[in-house]
Amino acid sequence: MAHQNRATLPNTDRFTGRAETYDRFRLRYPSDTILALLRTWTGLQPDWLIGDIGAGTGMFSEVFLANGNPVIAIEPNDEMRSLCKQLLPTWPLLEVHSAIAEATGLLDASVDMVAAGRAFHWFDIPRALTEFRRVLKPDGWLVLVSLGRDKGEDPQSRDFEHLLTHHGIDDHYARASFRVHENLHEFFAADHHHFEIDGQQQLNWETFLGQTMSLSIVPQPGHPRSEDFHRLLRDYFNTHASNGILTAPTKCWIDAGRLSTQ
User: Fold this and answer.
1) For the segment 51-99, what is each residue's pLDDT rounded down to a tens digit?
2) Nearest C-alpha neighbor of 87 from the set 63, 103, 104
3) pTM score, two decimals?
4) Sign of torsion, CA 34 38 44 49?
5) Residue 205, burial from CB neighbour count under 10 angstroms (0-12, 13-18, 19+)
6) Residue of 212, 219, 208, 210 lying closest to 168 (CA atoms)
7) Measured CA distances, 52 to 58, 62, 82 (Å)
8) CA-CA distance, 48 to 39, in Å (whole number)?
9) What gap in Å lies between CA 72 and CA 97, rounded to an integer?
10) What are phi and psi of 210, to 5 degrees?
11) What is the pLDDT of residues 109-161, one digit of tens each?
């Protein structure tokens, strides 16, 4: 089968073939910190209905479910949504729907909080914000959390970004979309709050490979670039790891606020 350029694929298909790897290896959200901030910033209560948009495998939904909140998880990708549905027996307050951020299918003024994790940069932002305004109750809140590698200027970070840029499959497109996080203040009319958490993780080869393969810009097995990418990735790990462990910086961005009216 011919390989498509990932830039030609809908964003809803970007993680097809990666869902299980994503769920196994991606960083989990710092639940206690997020909930503490949201209680302070927004007055979050356990009876608030949360719309988790672009819910993926349900990692962000679980933050709110653990707080006692009912959550409607909206996820268009079949593989990601299937894994999210596996949470249903554990969390009876969870619903999982097939829809997109720009047309969630949620009722008008029905949710207290719209939440989006590591999916927001893939949305059609103007259309998604219009949809969020429709489904949020008056004075409802938008919460955006992003968590992943810290794209710093140290040699280790630069080498990894260079590897993705020159041997990935669409990094220019992906990196351009990430820049939306630099201007989140433009979306909020009032009560905008922002917090960042710097961290690090210790990765062996298996975990590092898994996290990397979960990125949508990395060639999957069978892609013409896959073998070269895998070889270069191993070289990168051997260069920067110490005693078989790579120490990698991470960052978590947490934003909350009330949306402007247009």
Assistant:
1) 999 999 999 999 999 999 999 999 999 999 999 999 999 999 999 999 9
2) 63
3) 0.89
4) negative
5) middle
6) 219
7) 9, 10, 15
8) 12
9) 7
10) -60, -45
11) 999 999 999 888 889 989 999 999 999 999 999 999 999 888 878 899 999 98
